[in-house]
Amino acid sequence: MHVSRIALLAGLAVVVGPCNAFAQDEGAVDLGTLILESESDDTLLQNGYVAESGRQATRVDTAIRDIPQSISTVGQDQIEDQEPRTLLDSLGYTSGTNVTNFGFDTRYDALYLRGFAAYYNGLFRDGLRQVNGPSAWYQNHPYSFEAVSVLKGPSSSMYGVSGSGGIVNVVSKRPKQDPFNEVRLTFGTEEHKELAFDFTGPLAEDGRLSYRLTGVLRDADTPLEGYSDDLSMIAPALTYQLTDRTTVTFLGEYSESTRGGTASYYNPSYGVASNIYVGDPNYNDFVTEQWRVGYEVEHELTDNMTLRQNLRYSEVDADLEFSGIYALTPAPGFGRYWGHYLENTENLAIDTTLETEFATGAIDHTLVAGFDFSRSSYDTYYAGVGYVSAAATDAMVQPYSGGQDMDQYGLYLHNQMVSGPWTVFLSGRYDWVDTTTLDASRTGADTSHDGFSGRVGVSYAVNTDLSVFANLASSFVPTTGLVYDDSTDPNSSRPADPTRGIQKEIGLKYQLPGTESLITASLFDIQQEDGVVFQTVDPTVFGGLQQVQVPYDLRSRGLEIEGQFNFANDLRLTTSYTYLDMEIERGATGTIGKQLSATPKHTASVWGFYEPRNGALKGWGFGAGLRYVGESYGDDQNSFKNDDQFYADLSVSYDLDRLGVEGAGLQLNVKNVFDNTGQTCSAGFCYRTEGRTATASIAYRF
């Protein structure tokens, strides 16, 4: 058995020293155990595994059970219990998500929601869009965020240009008024060494100024030869309460990472991934430099009116060395090619909202009016692949090869009406998008698109535990990059048409009586026009590219059931099941009426973490999970199938306070326990899973 890697983590309960020291004195009061929590509960209120309320779907604080839309939330406790390495790892147990399409590939958060790609237009950070370039993608390091919310189905009426399957909103760690400090040290196989720290608390006695400083230093390899997993990250944050009615929060981050430039395995025949890694260990660095800075301002104009503005500027610079192999003719043997690709992406996003509360008769209104603007651009530098040597390719001057500039303006209005057990959402938005697509000569082709998106949602509280809901929502999004009308012709590229989608959804939300829990079940039907999917192409014809975007019309129908629970017996639990029918209504020849590749009809998962507070096992924590990914097709012609697969995960933690070391904890996480290295094929190209990994850490909280 090959243990791929170890990365450790944790830090759990802390016993208050002074309380214990004087507990034996007569008349002293034992205050018990104080749990140091790292989440701020600023824009998302979470309790264990259960999210209670947040701004994620409405831009105003709203109870999750009253929102007429399916929402999944991965909170801080689940993140700490599972110790994800990437955003994809964080969402592996979430219904309606697919994180296995491309096997092991830490370069990109290639996420699918309800069958639709969400990685270009569905990734948000703190409510603002993160627009990825073709290869310069923003990284969301799990240690830098305190929660992830997934809004299922079209959400353009509130968040503007975003995909038909929904959006993923990453919630950054924010300053806390209560001091929280953590230092974590990690060692592991594959030469894994890591130091992480997280400090937060007040900076002034009056409590008006608080800070947070989060960082990670990691030096690690992976099972793939020459494929690194190095990271340096620092994320400062500052909150200042200017007045009793005005608060300003500054959020920043800088990171530099080095990963492998190639994550593929050689495909000797159609639908088969060999065990031959195609990367060149001596020419395999994918260096990404990323930074973001921004602010959030909230000002209460009156007791019933609040003005908010969020702004963020961010950049990603990517330097990608990649390689591949091809079979020689005549056989046997392989030839190799190398490529050097440079890209930089810039984003500016500003969102301003005015929230007001009023009543008309028996109806209470929360009205939100807003305007947002975003400017995104990317530039690429690429001379094509070389067949002489890595050194010769590296010495080549990479000329300008193309780019794109996009300006987006949006006006939106949301009315949230409550009357007795009824909650009604009416949302409408209009977007204007101007795009300039540049070719290698920097000659631009201008396009302009505009469109309306809306949502009507109704929720009815049957009783204190059960609500039923329904919604009709639409999406509008111009697609980043180029599409190829003919996947065999590199000259058939053009700027993509905007993608439009509409969803019909009904469902229920239920809380088990007497428990902290939330169960959500829904039926949905989404139709999308002018969408894009990746199609496998001949890299020798397309300058080293293995896949390109091609236009598709898709229809997604299915069932989702998901539950989060905090049981009184110290058990935290999350479960999910998804049935998904993803039909191609317009696409490449031979695909119409077929299922979209790498989209399983059935997925299911369960994860639990047991942390007894009393008895002989007090101080221990035990976690276990199982994920099932059902059969899917390996290409859009449905000519062959991907096998179903199981993934198991384990976690064990121990509070060293039981040994007299207050605030310290140990944690061991093993992922993919069964060492599943099976293949998954998407659009005819096949990838492999990473296999078993193990992580272990020691952390100190104070």
Note the main sheet: 22 strands, antiparallel, barrel
Q: What is the 3D shape? A: globular
Oligomer: single chain
Provide the CATH top-level class: Mainly Beta
Number of strands: 41
The stretches of 5 or more residues where confidence is low (pLDDT under 50) are: 1-33
Integer-rounded radius of gyration: 25 Å
Share in helix: under 10%
The CATH level-2 architecture is identified as Beta Barrel
Please, could you describe this protein's structure?
The chain has 702 residues and is mostly beta strands. It has one domain: Maltoporin, Chain A (Beta Barrel), CATH 2.40.170.20. The strands form eight sheets. It has a 22-stranded antiparallel β-barrel. A five-stranded mixed β-sheet has the order 6-12-13-10-11. Strands 3-4-5 form a three-stranded antiparallel β-sheet, with no helix packed on it. The longest helix has 7 residues, at 76-82. It is globular and about 75 Å long. The two termini are 38 Å apart. Mean pLDDT is 91; it is low at 1-33.
